[in-house]
Amino acid sequence: MDDTFTINLYIADKHYPLRIKRSEEELVRKAAKLINDKIALYRSHFNMDDSDLELKDLLAMAACQVAIQALKAEERTDNSPIIESITQLNKELEAFLQ
Q1: What are residue 7's DSSP bridge partners?
Q2: Which of 38, 57, 70, 74 could form a disulfide with 53 if both were Cys (CB 3.0 to 4.6 A apart)?
Q3: pLDDT tens across 53-65, in order?
Q4: Contact call for residues 16 and 8 (beta carbons, < 8 A)
Q5: How far apart, in Å, are the Cα atoms of 36 and each of 11, 39, 56, 87, 93?
Q6: Whole-angstrom distance, CA of residue 76 vs CA of residue 44
Q7: What is the distance between the alpha carbons of residues 12 and 56, in angstroms, rounded to a whole number?
């Protein structure tokens, strides 16, 4: 059985049909909502009627903010210092037991 299907996303006032895995539907819809929410925030903040900003500018700012959040999340899940500490402790234990 095929576990992919097509959903319709609306991002930045445009329709995008997207073929995804069923298990990813909620995540994809949340991502689209996050982007749309950020665009709405910037749209209201910069008062689009009085601004030279275009929709592509709002998309760029939203993409940048989402990328920053993703990078911060990556930093928080960096396990390398923990792994280094465990490796060092393991070496010390081995030396002690010999």
Answers
A1: 18
A2: 57
A3: 788 888 999 999 9
A4: yes
A5: 6, 5, 13, 44, 53
A6: 31
A7: 9
Q: Decide: 38 and 62 in contact? Cβ < 8 Å.
A: yes
**pTM for this entry:** 0.69
Strand partners, 15: 10
CA 98/CA 90 separation, integer angstroms: 12
Q: Which single residue is written with the structure tokens 């992919």?
A: 4
| φ, ψ (nearest 5 deg) of residue 19 | -90, 120
The whole-angstrom separation of Cα 98 and Cα 76 is: 36
- Sheet strands (E) in 14-97: 14-21
Token pair for residue 67? 């990328």
